[in-house]
């Protein structure tokens, strides 16, 4: 089974302590907190006691620093598919292979929430040609809208179907020839809609459009798909690129509705859950965490504010990526969990800025600040879009069978609850309804008990092989039709709505800004250049925050259901009916605004110089990557710093061994490099030793040569002495010169030498009888000349010595 393992490094970090900040402190960047307690779908306005932690700090403390939700969280791969890719339209009854476990795709990027989520990319391309206001109205609002969608057969001709499908009259009936094989009768079923085909647009228009509109108008609404596995629930709810399902179409309509209601402002936030094996999981949480159902409150639950179709697309994409799916015997990508996409819609009439509501009662502690501020009540509703897991028979895979048991049990409980509710409504009873028997019914309790408008799309497989399952689904559809609803609009007159908190924060920040603005001229004289820069930065940050908060609140001017991102607000027009005094006042205000903008420009320039490593609208995955890298660096540097200071370093388990692994690898690399260098050094030493030996040999050869030369000199000197006539010849011109001359065959004796020789004739005669010194060349020199081919230098030395060795002719010349 694919379980979500929570490593130490993935554990949620504790929020850092909030630093105390003075009034001059730069306000924090807007980062809604990750987990927000939400009211249950039906109990939309939270009771003050169970007040939700909201995605922002309280308006009264705009300078508080909110912890980044992703601190310490490992980045997780982002799943790029918006919707899980649908398996190719499987022929009915075909059996794809079964993998070992369901996938909870690697949780995608842990995110830093930005106020706009994603606002700049092109809007989700959904073809919704029917305007929301032109869509169908709910005819019987106290009843569940029940539709049956028949999945087309492989050929698409409806020929081999076991059911007679009458779309025109919204009837479905088992063919008589199939009645026996299914063990069922041929009773006719009638519902609000019987739909066929693969086009998702008519399905959306018939089953969901009115409910989305109701949600925008302040009613809690639920749309869910129920049916046997592989009957087309996910295809209906999510769809694919060619056929967007109910969820993307609904989101498109939400923006379309805002666009068409210029007198209201809206705040949208989304969460995405799944119930897998009776445990609720938050599909938007970067760290897989089970969500607890406390009463009707889900904790912890991540809610994300979004401001554009692209923003919600990104949320859906992430949630879809985290859903557990697996291949079963019937469906290649079977949902193994019930998934619930929740959209909280807050809206209220735009207040006329210049007309405070003086008629309202004064604010009392714990009472409504709304009246004091001239605000209007806030409508709050929840739209739940639910894709239930499919009921199924035991499969060939153990794990799938176990999941199937959980799925079937919770669906049975849902059926049971629906039956009791139907009976209670029909017979005017109030029997106990076992909502808490399963997580699904517990979660849906507020809606099922009547406080929501409900639309159910029962998907069926009309093949003869699935008659029993189809009958069971149609039975469920019939039972839920009997449930009585009593949904009412929720209007909050208190200030707990998020939209009001944002508004209050905007007011507080604006006040701060005005104060600063008033003090600005005096301050400029008093402050140093650096302080002035800081001041201007603080001012810019406040205005930035104001703009961020304003950006979260949507109006018809700021949203576009088709284009990318919010539109700029159109400039206000000049009213020529104003008196000169009023115009002067406006002019004065405009001048002040310009001054303020100058200040902002200065601060923006400073900010530009110190701009962050990554742009704020970079994809979440990049931000997460950068955060992870920086965290890694911080950890490594702090470890290094500790070890430098001699503090024993304990390896942080949160590092998950990665640093240690990295350093071990580096150490190995260095050891290899050292070993290579050692080997090279040993080779060098060996070569040096060889060189030394060569030098010794050369020195020996040198000595031998000198001895030889000395002998020659001695011989010549001796000859001169013996002649007793001439002075001895200098050794410089002695043997070597003589030998050189001799070598060229041009040994010339001077006439005076010849004379001397004649005079020394008796001595010469004596010497001639003895062996020549030249013939007495030392043996080792001879050896050296003939051996030692090992070294480069030897041939040179050898050549020199060979050059020195006189030839027989030379010797004869010399002696003779
Ligand atoms: N109306 C339809 N037209 C064309 N293809 C369809 C239709 N309904 C379902 N399919 C195809 O049938 C397959 C199974 O559909 P899907 O996954 O939506 O079933 P499911 O009811 O959600 O199953 P599970 O409960 O196992 O998750 C998909 O490949 C889907 O594309």
TrEMBL record:
Compositional bias of type Low complexity: which residue ranges? 1-25, 39-52
Question: Which annotated residues bind ATP?
Answer: 227-234
Q: Which residues form the Kinesin motor domain?
A: 143-483
A cellular component term (GO) from this record?
microtubule
Q: Which Pfam families match?
A: Kinesin (PF00225)
Q: Tell me, which GO biological process terms does this entry list?
A: microtubule-based movement
**Domain of life the protein comes from:** Eukaryota
Q: Output the Gene3D superfamilies linked to this UniProt entry.
A: Kinesin motor domain (3.40.850.10)
Region spans: Disordered: 1-108, 742-761
Q: Where is the composition biased (Polar residues)?
A: 60-69
Q: What keywords are assigned to this protein?
A: ATP-binding, Coiled coil, Microtubule, Motor protein, Nucleotide-binding
* Gene Ontology MF, one: microtubule motor activity
Where is coiled-coil annotated? 485-526
Bias (Basic and acidic residues) occurs at 743-761
Q: Which family does it belong to?
A: Belongs to the TRAFAC class myosin-kinesin ATPase superfamily. Kinesin family.
The protein's name: Kinesin-like protein
Which organism's genome codes for this protein? Calocera cornea HHB12733
């Amino acid at each position: 089974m694919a379980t979500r393992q929570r490593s130490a490094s993935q554990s949620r970090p504790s929020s850092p302590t909030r630093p105390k900040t003075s009034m001059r402190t730069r306000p924090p960047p807007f980062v809604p907190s990750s987990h927000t307690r939400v009211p249950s779908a039906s109990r939309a306005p939270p009771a003050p006691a169970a007040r939700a932690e909201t995605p922002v700090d309280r308006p009264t403390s705009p300078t508080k620093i909110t912890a980044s939700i992703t601190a310490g969280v490992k980045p997780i791969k982002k799943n790029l598919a918006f919707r899980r890719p649908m398996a190719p339209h499987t022929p009915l009854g075909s059996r794809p292979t079964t993998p070992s476990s369901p996938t909870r795709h690697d949780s995608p990027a842990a995110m830093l929430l930005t106020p706009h989520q994603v606002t700049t990319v092109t809007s989700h391309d959904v073809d919704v040609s029917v305007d929301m206001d032109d869509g169908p109205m709910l005819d019987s609002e106290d009843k569940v809208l029940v539709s049956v969608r028949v999945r087309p057969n492989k050929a698409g001709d409806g020929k081999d179907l076991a059911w007679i499908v009458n779309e025109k009259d919204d009837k479905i009936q088992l063919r008589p020839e199939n009645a026996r094989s299914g063990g069922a009768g041929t009773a006719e079923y009638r519902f609000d809609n019987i739909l066929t085909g693969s086009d998702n647009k008519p399905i959306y228009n018939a089953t969901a459009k009115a409910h989305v509109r109701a949600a925008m108008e302040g009613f809690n609404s639920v749309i869910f798909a129920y049916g046997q596995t592989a009957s087309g629930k996910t295809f209906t709810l999510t769809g694919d690129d060619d056929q967007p399902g109910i969820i993307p179409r609904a989101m498109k309509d939400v923006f379309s509705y805002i666009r068409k209601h210029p007198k209201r402002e809206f705040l949208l936030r989304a969460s995405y859950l799944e119930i897998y094996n009776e445990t609720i999981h938050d599909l938007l949480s970067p760290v897989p965490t089970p969500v607890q159902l406390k009463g009707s409150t889900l904790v912890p639950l991540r809610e994300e504010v979004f401001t554009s179709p692209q923003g919600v697309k990104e949320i859906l994409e992430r949630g879809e990526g985290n859903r557990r799916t697996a291949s079963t015997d019937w469906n290649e990508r079977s949902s193994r969990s019930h998934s619930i996409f929740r959209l909280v819609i807050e809206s209220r009439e735009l207040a006329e800025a210049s007309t405070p509501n003086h008629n309202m009662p004064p604010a009392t502690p714990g009472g409504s600040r709304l009246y004091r501020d001239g605000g209007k009540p806030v409508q709050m509703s929840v739209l739940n879009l639910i894709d239930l897991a499919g009921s199924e028979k035991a499969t060939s895979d153990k794990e799938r069978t176990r999941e199937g048991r959980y799925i079937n049990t919770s669906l049975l409980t849902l059926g049971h609850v629906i039956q009791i509710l139907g009976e209670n409504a029909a017979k005017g009873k109030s029997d106990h309804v076992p909502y808490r028997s399963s997580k699904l019914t517990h979660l849906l309790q507020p809606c099922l008990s009547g406080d929501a408008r409900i639309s159910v799309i029962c998907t069926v497989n009309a093949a003869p092989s699935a008659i029993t399952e189809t009958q069971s689904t149609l039975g469920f559809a019939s039972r839920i039709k009997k449930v009585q609803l009593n949904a009412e609009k929720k209007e909050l007159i208190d200030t707990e709505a998020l939209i009001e908190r944002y508004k209050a924060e905007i007011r507080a920040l604006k006040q701060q800004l005005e104060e600063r603005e008033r003090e600005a001229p005096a301050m400029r004289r008093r402050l140093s250049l650096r302080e002035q820069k800081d001041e201007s930065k603080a001012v810019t940050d406040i205005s930035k925050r104001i703009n961020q908060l304003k950006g979260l609140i949507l109006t018809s001017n700021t949203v576009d259901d088709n284009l990318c991102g919010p539109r700029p607000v159109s400039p206000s027009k000049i009213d020529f009916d104003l008196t000169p005094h009023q115009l002067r006042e406006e002019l004065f205000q405009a001048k002040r605004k310009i001054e303020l903008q100058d200040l902002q420009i200065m601060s923006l320039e400073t900010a530009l110089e110190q701009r962050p490593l990554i742009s704020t609208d970079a994809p979440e995955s990049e931000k997460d990557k950068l955060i992870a890298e920086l965290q890694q660096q911080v950890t490594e540097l702090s470890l290094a710093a500790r070890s430098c200071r001699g503090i024993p370093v304990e390896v942080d388990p949160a590092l998950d061994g990665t640093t240690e692994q990295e350093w071990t690898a580096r150490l190995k690399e260095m050891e290899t490099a050292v070993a290579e260098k050692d080997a090279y050094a040993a080779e060098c030493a060996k070569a040096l030793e060889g060189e030394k030996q060569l030098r010794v040999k050369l020195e020996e050869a040198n000595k031998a040569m000198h001895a030889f030369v000395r002998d020659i000199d001695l011989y010549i000197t001796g000859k001169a002495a013996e002649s007793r006539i001439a002075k001895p010849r200098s050794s410089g011109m002695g043997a070597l010169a003589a030998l050189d001359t001799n070598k060229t065959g041009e040994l010339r004796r001077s006439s005076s030498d010849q004379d001397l020789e004649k005079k020394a004739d008796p001595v010469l005669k004596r010497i001639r009888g003895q062996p020549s010194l030249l013939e007495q060349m030392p043996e080792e020199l001879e050896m050296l000349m003939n051996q030692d081919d090992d070294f480069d230098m030897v041939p040179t030395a050898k050549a020199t010595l060979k050059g020195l060795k006189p030839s027989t002719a030379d010797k004869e010349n010399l002696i003779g």
